[in-house]
């Protein structure tokens, strides 16, 4: 926030996009750093932080917003720069009543001052994304415990349900053929890669205690060869050794390895074995409405 305010100290009116480029140059950000995304993948981290820095400075009356996406330093902003602060963070901005009212409209100033504030700058969107990720990580751990407790055959059905939810095959009957409990030759399921069944994907779904052995992966590769199959998915509730990953990268068939962690992440993403508890709709100002 301090560098942003400093760039505007000449009193001119600036586009926020101009200040964003100035800040990127100041911090010598690489193109890769500029493209870094928030955990949600919806926005660049840098762009999001600049936008919130601008919002916080405007709400503190250190910057004015003469028109949409433009800012201009205020007399208060010039006074703050004249004090030569080492940095400007949320704790610093709480001295201004306008900012305190913005971040905690229903909290008294004494309560705000009693609340510890980190000097590290995290935007509300970053905090929301981080909280959402933490909740899902805890959910994934709980979900994996349930999956590990399933009957092995029901686990195979779960895997087919997940692949079908991800878009493989058509309806439940068309999507997959789950093989019998025994005598399946190392194949637990066969699922259509597309609605028309132009190609088949062979599935191995195993509840496993400890790391899956490389011999199990080699056996699966041999089974694909015996079926003249080109594509396979090996899914487990545990994990794979590095040797298994290396093996799958070298053979002339495609084998995708999905461990327990990845399995639960996919189940959460595609709503298999989970149910929505609460939905939050994030909104922003529709600038086109006000300009029309």
UniProtKB/TrEMBL annotation:
The record's annotation in InterPro entries points to:
Mrr-like_N_dom, Restrct_endonuc-II-like, Restrct_endonuc_IV_Mrr, tRNA_endonuc-like_dom_sf, Type_IV_Methyl-Rstrct_Enzyme
* Keywords assigned: Endonuclease, Hydrolase, Nuclease
Domain Restriction system protein Mrr-like N-terminal span(s) in chain numbering: 1-81
Pfam assignment, any one: Mrr_N
Q: Which residues form the Restriction endonuclease type IV Mrr domain?
A: 148-267
Q: Which GO terms describe its molecular function?
A: DNA binding; restriction endodeoxyribonuclease activity
Protein's GO biological process: DNA restriction-modification system
What name appears for this protein in its UniProt entry?
Restriction endonuclease
